Amino acid sequence: MDGDESLEVHVPESPVVALFGTNAVLNCSFSGVSEFNLSDLSVFWQLSDTKRTVHSYWQSRDQLTDQDDRFANRTSLYPDQLMSGNASLLLKKVRVADEGSYSCFVRVQTYSTGAMLMQVAAPFSKPLVTWGSESNLKPGDVVALTCVAYGGYPEAEVLWQDGAGRNLTDNVTISQVANEEGLFSVKSILTVILEPNSTYNCRLTNPLLGEEGQASVTITAQGLVFPPLALWLTVALAVCLLALLVALAAVCRRKIKESCEEMRAEEEAKELEEAKELEEAKSGVAFNFVPLGRNTSKELKLETTGIFFTTAIPHECKGVVKLLRLDLLKSKP
Question: Are 3 and 113 within 8 A, CB to CB?
Fold first, then answer.
């Protein structure tokens, strides 16, 4: 405090937090003066660092000629309370640019001043979490979870947690960009390996307001988008084709086996027939006789003619005689 000790100016020691877009009151009071005329009172508000005039009052009225343009039509005192020692400033429609240190200067014959800090705060929108693309995701994929919020001030504090409340600090990036009004948009990205039935929380806190916003996402097995229908159809067709090829191979193998068995049987029959003919040739005579009657016990007389011979068939018998060529070179009479 400066000036005569009889005049004291009182301002808050702690910073004043003003909400963006609302009206804020910067409290300032003075004491130590028992009686004075309003015309003897002067009140000046200015920015502590630049000394730019925020609001001026003397000679019983506002004096705004030297007022900084950005405060035009946005400031006022409480005239009816000045005589009681209230020199507070009403600042309308607070902006981010209004943040800073303000000095309250009071003069009544003597002077005194006090400085206070005003901080501006704006709540962020409710956070929103999105994850990856909307298709072709499967467990084990690396996915980027994105948490966004808008329109806050000052910069937010962002914290990622898993479903058990454990803090996730690895593979996290945060970016905050201010718009033309000075309000921030925050974007935080958490990179994870995709697992079914996993929950991830994004907690966003405004350090001045202490407000916390939260958004979460739970990735379940049902939430995962597996390969599209076309791929499943391709796999199914491939399986069916493979099964068909296996079946055809089995049929061909059976047919080949049957053909081989038939050929083997024919070869064996042929060999047996040749062996039989050879045996009959060695015995010198052979015939087939099929009796059709009952009297089949009569002797059959063999008559030879040249190198062939036939059997005389009884009248009572009906049969079939096979003529066989015999080698009678040595048996001819």
Answer: yes
